[in-house]
Amino acid sequence: MGNKALSLIGVPTDIGAGHRGASMGPEALRVANLASKLERRGFEVIDHGNLQGPVNPWQPPQDGYRHLPQVVAWNEAVHTAVYTELAAGRVPVMLGGDHCLAIGSISAVARHCREQGKKLRVLWLDAHADFNTADVTPSGNIHGMPVACLCGNGPQALVEVGGHVPATTPDVFRQIGIRSVDEGEKSLVREAQVSIFDMRRIDEVGMKRTMEEALADVDENTHLHVSFDVDFLDPTIAPGVGTTVRGGPNYREAQLCMEMIADTGRVSSLDIVELNPAFDKRNQTARLAVDLVESLFGKSTLIR
Questions:
Q1: Contact 57, 13 (CB under 8 A)
Q2: 164 is catalytic
Q3: Which of 12, 167, 196, 229 has its CA 20 to 30 A from that of 122?
Q4: Is-catalytic flag, 48?
Q5: Is 99 an active-site residue?
Q6: Is 274 a catalytic residue?
Q7: CB of 302 within 8 A of CB of 126?
Q8: Where does 193-250 have alpha helices with state H?
Q9: Is the pLDDT of residue 12 over 90?
Q10: Biggest CA-to-CA distance, the chain
Q11: What is the pLDDT of residues 100-126, one digit of tens each?
């Protein structure tokens, strides 16, 4: 990807989550020296500080969604910020915040790809498929719905973020590390034919083959967006998330995943989400996330 400038965009909100605390994620990543470590990799890093948005009212769901107006406001702010950086030729790195914010970032990336005639591939690194709708989830937490919303299945105000409906289609996603899918959600992802490489698949064929399949047909005209939910990782190494699910990738599997993505040279935008310092131990999850993001941008053990 060359030595492009990386733009850090902090989005300090837990507006779509079921636990408080992801709003502190951007600061934890800064404390773990994300900017200076990426500068050491040879990148120019611009930290744009934090976006502003409505406070979390911490209310129960209304009509099946929690905090819908506030989620829309935050995602519109994210869309504008991410799109602005892409248009300027920089690589936006969104520091979340919860995963509902991917509606704003990925809708911006998809818009950029349409304008540039590029093919979009989204690597969704997560324990969850995030393809819920209000009909199948009682919680109403929108951080479980971003992929569905991006594919046109959600409340109108969110589906229309970025102005193009649907923002993208299920075929651009490759979901890796999935191990928690709600019952009703299973039929939704099957109908939409989302490509899911769940933990059983990784156990059976290994991370190497999984990533080869997920990255197949990525070429020089592909914009590769990585949406990295920190709960992708096994909670024994990454306790600092609100929704831990046992049995995720271990440290080496996660490193291999990131290194193989880096090998494509096509990473052009990134979300880091769901880091929750309230559940962390001495910022270890933030430090691990930064370590993996370094690998995503080219750090490896040997000179290859």
A1: no
A2: no
A3: 12
A4: no
A5: yes
A6: yes
A7: no
A8: 199-214
A9: yes
A10: 54
A11: 999 999 999 999 999 999 999 999 999
Q: What would the pLDDT profile of 212-237 be if each residue is shown by its tens digit? A: 999 999 999 999 999 999 999 999 99
Return the SS3 of 231. helix
Q: Print burial letters for 275-284: b (CB count within 10 Å at least 16), e (below 16).
A: bbbebbeebe
5-296 classified as CATH 3.40.800.10: yes
Angle (CA) 220-252-19 rounded to 5° is 90
pLDDT of 192 > 90? The answer is: yes
**Active-site annotation holds for 128:** yes
Cα angle 15, 131, 136 (rounded to 5 degrees) comes to 85
Answer for the pair 273, 227: CB distance below 8 angstroms, yes or no: yes
End-to-end C-alpha distance for the chain, whole angstroms: 16
**H helices within 88-155, ranges in order?**
102-116, 146-150
Assigned token pair, 285: 């999850």
DSSP H helices in the chain: 25-31, 34-40, 68-87, 102-116, 146-150, 156-159, 183-192, 199-214, 251-264, 284-296
How is residue 5 written in tokens?
């400038």
Instruction: Sketch the domain layout of the chain as residue ranges.
Output: 5-296
Q: Beta strand pairing status for 222-229 and 195-198?
A: unpaired
Q: Is 126 a known active-site residue? A: yes
Closest CA to 71 of 31, 11, 130, 129: 11
Asked if pLDDT for residue 165 goes beyond 60, the answer is: yes
Rg of the chain (C-alpha set): 17
Catalytic option among 79, 112, 143, 225? 143
The residue from 98, 160, 229, 253 that is catalytic is 229
> Is residue 31 packed enough to be buried (19+ CB in 10 Å), middle (13-18) or exposed (0-12)?
middle
Please choose, from the candidates 107, 80, 124, 97, the residue with its C-alpha nearest in 3D space to the C-alpha of residue 26. Answer: 97
